[in-house]
Every structure is written in C-alpha cells, then in structure tokens.
Write a structure and sequence with these properties.
586 residues; mainly beta; 3 helices; 22-stranded parallel beta sheet; twelve-stranded parallel beta sheet
Length: 586
C-alpha cells in the first residue's frame, strides 16, 4: 500500500472541503429568453442555450458559492422572487444586471398583476382569495377605502374600551357590517396596531397589545361601504372580494402581500446591486442570511412593507441606495452584528399609505444591531423617527429633515436602553443637520407631545452628542431618565426648550450619581429656519444634500431679512463636522 504522510492528508482534506464549487452565471431576459433554456448565456445560442424568460425559473435552482443572477437591463420583471442559498455550502450570491445599464435602464422588479377592466361606471368586483394590499390605476396607486374618510375615529370619553379582544361599542359604528374589516388602532402616540375584525360585533383575531382607551385613534378598512363618492378600493377578508371604484377607462393592476425579493438560507452572503424595486406587496428586499449582506446602488419605491430588511447577518452594508415612499421602515435590521448605512437618500418612510397606515419605527432603524455606522445619509419626510440606534453606534454627518409627521413621542435621532443596568459600548451622534420635527397630535393620550431633534430616552448612557445643528423642532435635545451622556458644542434653535434633562431618581438608582454633561452649546428658543450661504455671504433657501455639505450654513430667525455676513446680531459657531461654518443670526 502507498504511504500517505499526515501533511499530505491534511492538504488533501483542505483542498476537498474548502475549494468553492464552480460558480455559475444565470441570465434572465423576458424579451429574449425562454424558460426552457438553461439560463447560462446572455443571448440565444442554440441547443436550448440562452437566458431564462421569468424570475420564477430561478426559484427552481439550487444556488451555490459564487453564483450570479443577472437581469437584462431595460426590462421589467414580474415578481415576487424567492431564492434559497444552499445551506450546506453557504457561500456568496450576487443579484445584479447585464447589458446596456445606463441610468434609467436598470432592471425593474414589479409584482403587479393585471385586473379586468371596470364597467362603464368604473366599478370592478372580483373574487380574490389572496389578500390584496395595493391597487393601481394607470400606474398610480389608488387609496384604500377607509372609515372615517379622513383622520382617526377617536374613542369618546367615558367609553369602556378595556377589553383588548374586541372593539368598544361606538355610536359611529352602530349597525355597520364589520366582519372582514381591518383595524388600524393608534393605541399609543407612537404605535399603530393592526388586527382583523372577525365579527360584526367587533371581535378581533387576537388581543391588542395596548388596551383601547378614550382618545385612542381608530381607522377601519376593507368593507365596500367605506367607498364613498370617489375612487378607491377595498379587499373584504370575509367575502374574499376585491372592489375597485375608478375611471371607466382605467388600466387596473393589483398587488398581494409578499416580499418582492426574498433571499433565505441560514448560511451565506449576498450582494444586490443596480436594480429597481417597484410596488412591493411587503418588504422590497428581505434577506435572512448569516454572512455579509450588501445592498448598493438600488432604487426602491412604493413598498407596502419595509424598503430593506436584513436579519441575522454578521455584517450588513447598505450604501448609495434611493428609497422613497414605503409603508414601514426604509432600512430595518434584526439581530445584525454590525450595520453600515452610508450615502443613502430616504424619502417618505412610513408615509406611503395606499393600503392604510402601518406600524413604523424609523426611516433607518438600527436598534437591533450590536454596532452600527450611519453616516452621510439624507432622510426626509419620516412618519416616525428619522434614525433609531442602540449602542456602539456612530451617527455622523446625516441630514434628517421633516421627521415625526404621523406619530409623536418622537425624534429625528432616537435611542434608548432596556434597563438601568444596560451598559454597552459608547455611541456618537455628531455633525448631523436636523430640520423640522413636528407631528400629528390628533391622537393625544398624554399631556405633552414630544417632537425632538435628538432624544436620549430611558436609560440611555455613554452617548456623545456633539456638533449637531437642530432647527425648527418643538424641543432640541431631550434626555429622559438618561445618565452619563455628554452634550457638547451643539447649535440648537427650536420653538420650545433647546434642551431638557428630566430624570426619575428612583428609576436611575445609583446611576443618578452619573449626571449628564452639558457644555458649550449655542441655544436659541423661537422660530428659526436654516439656509445655505453663497460665496457673497447671502443666505438662501435650504437646499438638498450637496448644498448643505458644500456651503456654510446660516440659522435665521423667521420673519427677519437675511443679514449680511458681518451683521452684529450674528454669532459665529464652531464648525460642524464637514460643514464649513455655521452662523446663528437673531
């Protein structure tokens, strides 16, 4: 028998078990492909060689390390798409594009299915066993029928609403058929709960987390009687019927609830690059892998769930994406060890309510991460928090504009801890420009409505808040039952108190001996606005991301003429991060 040395056997084992499988490129082109092809060529090459025609064909594949899924640019693909990365090999997968991929020609994933034409009165009634979450007429989302037609239905005073399993008896709902409706209950200033109504007497499919009480806000959807005098749609869960009221000549399509792209497989890494995701029925991108997840140069619009949701990853990189009009969070992480969110433009997180308002936490929600870096993003028009973090986070040089538009007890940048003993690595919030924090107070369960620039809530500790600019908020920087934080060198010009430090000594216990440090902040109370300054020292209207970063900033009291650079009532403040200079003018 031949002699095998231990070193040779070790080398042989390493080669056998560490060498990657042969990587494969799979191509898809609805215009030029065929699902009978093998997908291995960009163009038809005979003998069934050529691109697939549909995304569904990809779901039949077992994907391995190094494989690439490539979509032909300039084409639209009917989703959703669910891929599984082989658990045994783990490995890496790329989902990208090929062909002429100039801006505006990126592959578009779209789950919409055509509906029959409405009748001459613009009415369509159609049996639909699968729940519908979005309806479009000529590429424009139709509003879901709801009750009340505008604003919430407030639970009146002296109403017994303590039973979490059913709706209270309300005069506004008397005699109305409710079975099959969907309840959206704003049970706290900051929280919306979704439930199915099972019976006409208001029984719910599962108990509410928080009891209804006077001044709680309710919205109901899903019944035909909620379509009144206009265009809209409802899907009735009890009859499983879709009803659409629109223009007679409208081209209709519907979306059912599911992620547009879902990639699963306990082991593995993923890169998604250069695609467009439109009209998702759930999350636009939902990834559950334990490796490195990279989402870059992607456009997401009109999603009924989150824009990007990543769970369980060792590292998540979300960079240079554009996310606009999503019903929940634009970027959401769950149990991710390290998240990096850089250079993204996020608009309308939580504001897209074509199917009714939904529970939302933050435009960029990194609370369930062990560590995070969130920098150089522009976040505009958020329903709730703009950016939400846990610990070991660096939130730097972001622009957070118009936060808290639908919910209250809220901030442009927010953090908290589980309890007084939750001591994790320090966090930094620095160089951010925050403009406009004010929200919906139609549901008012407490005495105060908090619309804050930077909010360090319950038990937040070791957070360094430095060199931020906060303008046009109800409150500037609020520390609530927080300890051992530093607030240094910030510029705060807000309608209410520039800074608040409120603590309950009983809650903080021994940690009450670690006070918060407030130093060298420039503070103003009143109506102020933010402007950029040109080379001649003239202040102009607030601009977008490039202008803020490239030009000096000027904080102006509203109602006054823009002062010259050398005006006596202007105070030069320390430079804020990458911004050239900040001047506050009274």
């Amino acid at each position: 028998m031949p002699f095998w040395s231990p070193g040779f056997l070790l080398a042989l084992g390493l080669n056998l078990f560490s060498a990657p499988a042969l990587a494969t490129d799979y191509h898809v082109s609805p215009a030029n492909g065929d699902d009978r092809y093998d997908g291995l060529a960009q163009a038809t090459a005979g003998d069934r060689r050529g691109p697939f025609a549909s995304l569904r064909r990809l779901e039949q594949l077992r994907l391995h390390h190094g494989d690439r899924v490539l979509l032909h640019c300039g084409e639209r693909y009917t989703g959703p798409l669910r891929l599984t990365l082989d658990d045994r090999s783990g490995g890496e997968l790329l989902i990208g594009s090929y062909g002429d991929c100039q801006p505006g020609r990126e592959p578009v994933l779209d789950p919409r299915q055509p509906l029959p034409a409405p009748n001459r009165d613009g009415l369509l009634e159609l049996a639909m066993p699968t729940p519908v979450v979005q309806v479009f007429a000529n590429d424009e989302p139709l509003t879901v029928g709801r009750f009340p037609a505008a604003g919430p239905l407030l639970v009146p005073d002296n109403t017994d609403a303590s039973d979490k399993r059913r709706l209270p008896t309300l005069a506004a709902l008397a005699g109305k058929p409710l079975a099959g409706a969907r309840l959206l209950a704003r049970t706290e200033e900051w929280y919306i709960e979704e439930r199915a109504v099972l019976s006409d007497d208001g029984q719910l499919d599962k108990p509410l987390e928080y009891a209804l009480r006077p001044r709680t806000g309710l919205v109901l959807t899903g019944k035909r009687w909620m379509l009144k005098g206009g265009r809209g749609w409802v899907w009735d869960a009890s009859s499983q019927q879709l009803t659409v009221q629109t223009a007679p000549d409208a081209r209709l399509s519907a979306v059912t609830g599911a992620p547009l792209l879902a990639v699963v497989g306990g082991r593995g890494s993923l890169t998604v690059r250069g695609l467009v995701f439109d009209a998702a029925g759930g999350d636009a991108i939902n990834v559950r892998l334990d490796g490195v997840v990279t989402i870059e140069d992607v456009t997401i619009r009109r999603a009924y769930g989150n824009g990007i949701a990543v769970a369980g990853a060792r590292q998540a990189l979300v960079q240079r994406n554009r996310i606009e009009d999503v019903a929940q969070d634009a970027v959401f992480f769950a149990e991710v060890r390290r998240a990096e969110v850089r250079g993204n433009t996020v608009t309308g997180a939580g504001m897209y309510v074509s199917g009714g308002p939904r529970s939302v936490l933050a435009a960029i929600n990194a609370h369930r991460t062990d560590a995070a870096v969130i920098e150089d993003n522009e976040v505009d028009r958020s329903a709730y928090h703009g950016i939400r973090i846990a610990a070991a986070a660096q939130v730097r040089n972001n622009q957070v504009l118009r936060s808290c538009l639908r919910l209250s007890d809220c901030a442009a940048i927010y953090t908290w801890r589980r309890n007084v003993d939750d001591r994790r690595p320090p966090s930094e919030i620095s160089g951010n420009v925050i403009v406009g924090v004010a929200g919906d107070t139609s549901v008012k369960l407490g005495v105060n409505d908090y619309f804050v620039g930077i909010y360090l809530d319950e038990f937040a500790n070791d957070v360094h808040v430095e060199r931020n600019v906060i303008v046009d908020a109800n409150q500037g920087i609020y520390l609530h039952n927080a300890y051992g934080n530093s607030v240094v060198g910030n510029i705060v010009a807000v309608r209410g108190k520039p800074k608040i430090d409120a603590a309950d000594a009983k809650k903080l216990g021994a940690m009450a001996e670690r006070p918060n440090d407030w130093n060298d902040n420039l503070e103003r109370s009143g109506n102020y606005q933010l402007a950029t300054v040109d080379d001649a020292g003239r202040a102009g209207a607030r601009r977008g991301a490039p202008s803020l970063a490239a030009r000096p900033l000027r904080v102006l009291r509203s109602g006054t003429a823009a002062p010259d650079r050398d005006a006596a009532r202007c105070t030069e403040a320390p430079a804020v991060a990458t911004y050239a200079a900040v001047t506050v003018c009274d």
